[in-house]
Amino acid sequence: MTAAVVIGASAGAVQALSDILPRLPAEFPLPILVVVHVPSAPSGLTQLFSAKCAVAVVEPDDKEQIRPGTVYFAPPGYHLLVEPDASISLSSDEPVLFSRPSIDVLFESAADAFGAELLGIVLTGANEDGSRGALAIEAAGGQILVEDPATAYAAAMPTAALARCATARTLSLDAIADHLLGLVER
Amino acid sequence: MNTEPTPAVEDIEIQLLLEALALRYHYDFRHYARASIKRRLRQAREQLEFSTFSAMQDALLHNEGMVGRLLDYLTVQVSEMFRDPSYFKALREKVIPHLRTYPSLKIWIAGCSHGEEVYSFAIMLLEEGLLDRTMIYATDINPAALDVAKSGVYPLDRIASFTRNHQQAGGRTSLADYYATAYGRAVFDKKLREKVVFSDHSLVSDEVFTECQLVSCRNVMIYFDRPLQDRAVGLFRESLTRRGFLGLGSKETLRFSDHADAFTEFVREEKIYQRSDA
Ligand SMILES: C[S@@+](CC[C@H](N)C(=O)[O-])C[C@H]1O[C@@H](n2cnc3c(N)ncnc32)[C@H](O)[C@@H]1O
Predict the structure, then answer these.
(1) Which tens digit of pLDDT belongs to each residue from A37-95?
(2) What are phi and psi of B12, to 5 degrees?
(3) What is the ipTM of this complex?
(4) Where does the record place the catalytic residues (chain A) (predicted)?
(5) The domain spanning residue A130 has which CATH number?
(6) Exposure on the CB side of residue B208, measured as CA atoms within 13 A
(7) Which atom from ligand 1 is nearest to the alpha carbon of B112?
(8) Which residues on adjacent β-strands are paired with residue B239?
(9) Extents of the domains making up chain B
(10) A120, B14, B145, B227: which one has the fewest Cβ atoms less than 10 Å from its Cβ?
(11) Atom 13, ligand 1: residue with shortest CA distance
(12) What angle do CA B105, B109, B110 make, to 5 degrees?
């Protein structure tokens, strides 16, 4: 059973996320936490995707409780972490692999909080962020989906995640969206 | 029988390590946001080359040199001058007109780190003609950070972003008026800290020490859990005069606080609050 979804994306993120998030119905029952590497504040991602999506899209404040059917974008300049009680902590710690927010930081804390009930998704990007976090999700018994590097805008990030996680599945963006929709049909 | 799930060994070890730190050295991180404290402890364990947190705890208890090193991992010293320029602009335009009406002012900067926020305030107050009548209390728990703050010395390569922020914050002069350069570093003018008292103060365990018109506590409480945030906000509430102001970090909020009712949003988008209770 999946309780929460985490997504990491870098170069090409907006296009890739546009193929996934707008397909989710308003009553999609899982929380989705997203880290996108953006150069600086304000990122505008929240406004952009609010306009395109049926699900609620927010940029959370510190200590917000995670709610179902809501997409949380990490605020520019802050790491986004999940606490064991499923609330959000933000932090202004040093960048990790030159990135703040960092995908690894989100994935590792979410793996601790949700264990085997976490689904991690690594999308397009030209760096290695996310692979360490994907490994943590795998180690906690969670699932990993990776955008097919062959069709991704930037292949490095999916490739790095695949190299590190033996159980990761490679899917197209469409198939990733189908998978999310499949989680809620029963 | 106990039906609680057994915590992971690592979580037990972390709890014991934090207990040891609190009992032996009075640095109490037990109510810090667990996910981020865990991340930083893992970093410390890797870089200080301990195989387990239990081994680290042993070293911490028996070797006094460890505590300072661990503190540098546990407290995050990331800051900038005029960080979030729009915050300082809002203070200048909307809060300072109120502060002007007081014959003398006290300002508390809690969690001042290396002092970037303190010098930002001092410069802004000087530009507004208020520094003469202001006392600034700058507090932190990290003694090494307080030493840097007192020195007012920063690497030159940080000056470009400080200067940009100062301009965007509505700076009335050139930042270069306030520092001299030497040996690749910028040394901020002593005048700026004549009215500053730097001191060791913990929002976890210490009490209120003064009455003030403004508290700025930015990006400190994000490291606390909710009960500890409530304690800190309680201190600010107690310290503030009637209609006093509280400024938080750009993603911090009183929405989840026990003390929310004691404040009104003064500049909503900049997380500037005003004490509203009697
Ligand atoms: C990220 S820095 C914030 C610096 C500055 N206020 C800003 O926003 O740029 C956090 C600071 O909080 C301090 N701190 C952590 N725990 C504290 C406590 N219990 N009481 C006071 N300061 C604390 C740390 O030592 C560190 O200097």
Answers:
(1) 976 656 789 999 999 999 999 999 999 999 999 999 999 999 999 999 999 999 999 99
(2) -65, -45
(3) 0.92
(4) 10, 37, 129
(5) 3.40.50.180
(6) 16
(7) 6
(8) none
(9) 7-74, 85-275
(10) B227
(11) B111
(12) 140
